[in-house]
Every structure is written in structure tokens, then in C-alpha cells.
Amino acid sequence: MELNTFESEMLIDIYDNYMQPDMPFEIENYRLTEECPTKQIQEFTSYLKKLKKLGLIKYEEREVFVKGGSFSTKYNNNVTVIYEDKINISSKGLKLVERYNYIHSEIEEKCIIND
């Protein structure tokens, strides 16, 4: 399972939102490559779909995505609205983020001790 930096950040943000609901997970928090807002939604959707396909997040597609407009062959969807609050982290995603946090806390400890 290979996640790019962007997908990793999204998963960590979904985890943070799960642990602290006042930490919103929103599309506006990301610098997407697309300029057009419609294409940004489609780009963001493609990352969410990959995370779900890998079993790291869970959601009901009909509750999260509103579809319409033109279909993007680049992102393979025609989503126009995303309800981010309906997206949850799965147990597999929880374990992955917690393992990541544990490894990085150990690295930080070693850096502090060695300073």
C-alpha cells in the first residue's frame, strides 16, 4: 500500500477529526493542483476514493458525494459537492496512523536525546 504525501496528510486529518471533532476535515484545507473549483472537487474525490479502496476510510458514496455536470476522465468522476463530515476512518486506517505517530514520536525522542 503506497500513499503519496497528499493522501497521507488527508488520512492523518481524517484521523485528527475522528479523535477531535472540532478539527475539521475540509477540502479548503488543501492545496490542490487544479485551479478550477469544480476540478478541485473531482481531484479531491479521487484521493478519497483511493483511501476507501485501500480500506483506510469508510463512507456511503450517496451520503458523501453529489454528482452532476461534466464527467472528468482524468479523475474518473463527476462529483460537484462533497460532505466531508460523513467520512470516517476505518480500523485499518486508525492502526496505520497510530503506527505512523508512534514511529515518528520515537524518532523525535532520539533527536532530543542526541541533541
Total beta strand runs: 4
Count of helical regions = 4
Order of helices and strands: HHEHEEEH
Gyration radius over CA: 16 Å
Q: How much β-strand is present in the residues?
A: 15-25%
Structural class: alpha+beta
Kindly report the spatial arrangement of strands forming the biggest sheet.
1-4
Q: Could you give a short account of the major beta sheet?
A: 2 strands, antiparallel
Shape: globular
Low-confidence stretches: none
Q: Overall pLDDT, averaged?
A: 90
End-to-end gap = 34 Å
Helix content: 40-55%
Give a written overview of the molecule.
With 115 residues, this protein is α+β, with helices and mostly antiparallel strands. It contains 4 helices and 4 strands; from the N terminus they run ααβαβββα. A two-stranded antiparallel sheet has the order 1-4.
